Amino acid sequence: MFRQEKDGDPMRHGGSVMAPDAELAMHYARELFGRRQESVRLWIVRRVDIVDLHDPDLLQPPLDRSFKKPGGYVMRDKLAAARAAVGQAKPKARSR
Amino acid sequence: MTDPLALDPVLAPSDRSTATPTSTPAPTRAHDEAYDAWFERFEAHLAAGGTVESTDAMPDEYRTAVLRFVEMHANSELMGVLPEREWLMRAPTLRRKLALTAKVQDEVGHAQLLYRVAEDLGKPREAMFDDLLAGKTKFHNVFHYPTKGWADVGMIAWLVDAAAIVAQMALRESSYAPYARTMRKICWEESVHIMHGRDVVITMATGTPGQRADIQDALDRWWGPLMQMHGPRSPREKDMDLRWRIKAKTSEELRQEFLTIYVPRIRELGLVIPDPELRFDETVGEWRYSEPDWDELRTVVTNHGPMSEARLEFRRLARAETAWVRDTILAAPQAA
Fold this sequence. Notes:
The complex is a heterodimer of chains A (96) and B (336).
Chain A: E1 2-4, E2 12-13, H1 22-33, E3 41-43, H2 56-59, H3 76-85
Antiparallel strand pairs in A: 1-2, 1-3
Chain B: H1 33-47, H2 60-85, H3 94-120, H4 125-133, H5 150-171, H6 177-205, H7 209-228, H8 240-243, H9 251-267, E1 279-281, E2 286-288, H10 294-304, H11 308-321, H12 323-335
Antiparallel strand pairs in B: 1-2
Helix pairs in contact in B: 2-3, 3-6, 5-6, 5-7, 5-9
């Protein structure tokens, strides 16, 4: 069972229900995850229809991927050198 | 970001998806009171900050406006990798090559996400490719120009992506919720591209006189297209995309925001912005600049730019060469 908490939010997994068919599953889900008006939308999906990928070799490979992250680019020293080369002081925050 | 010069919507009524079983069927379009009342309620919902999901009923006018906006954005992500891919094999170091490859992969991924959003609005992906390649729909002006050197790669990743992200940040609150959610992921990835681009430019700024000259030359060539990128000023009250909160800011607001953040960052590197009129006017709190060349923008986005035809031709070739893959995949479920 996936639920949306408010309009525009992503659908998030909220739990599961056991039911013999889709219609009863919907009623159970509504009672369990919607009775305090805490959801604006529910998706009920059969567990067997979910493709589960949980392979660290594919999702968390032990390789240096720092070039894909903001922290992979440290420019402070280079920037200071570039400013010094042209005689520029560090600009004030929000300077025009 | 939107392109005020965009062509008319190309969604034929027969291509529009009908409301799904979970949604209330939209009243049929006619000049009847029921439709007008429903349309009014829909607009009030948007004005109050409401959002729309792909499975909700929505007026054709709104559906078409979102589709045109998202399709143009998707096209731009897809075509936008072509100027950069030319430099994959010529990147100066292995790390730069990895970073540029990752950026190209990200942008194609953005095209995938955005074409999905557009598809759900009722236009098949193949029809979007047909229209792009036939010149019926557009992609952003900045991707119609050549990349002459490595400095251009840095300039694109830094300033073109920066100008784009200014617009994209504002789209995270779009009334069309699937687009807003997609933009949250895209902005997160774009922020890395800007870091990569700025790193390339700063590295060259601390390099040889030749490298410094290269980045100045790249800035000289890219400044015009950058200033044109968000489009001409247009009155807020006439812009339906703003009224329906598909986007949040006018082209001029985006350009001002871009200038405020990036002019100091460009100047601190000793680079000279090629516009003698550029200055911040303290009295009105706005940047003044030479009028961008709107004729150039019009020429370029209608596929008469220096590289328009070559890039479209490359895309046609790639599409033809990979047709067998799509055919095989689409045929598989039938064979099973």
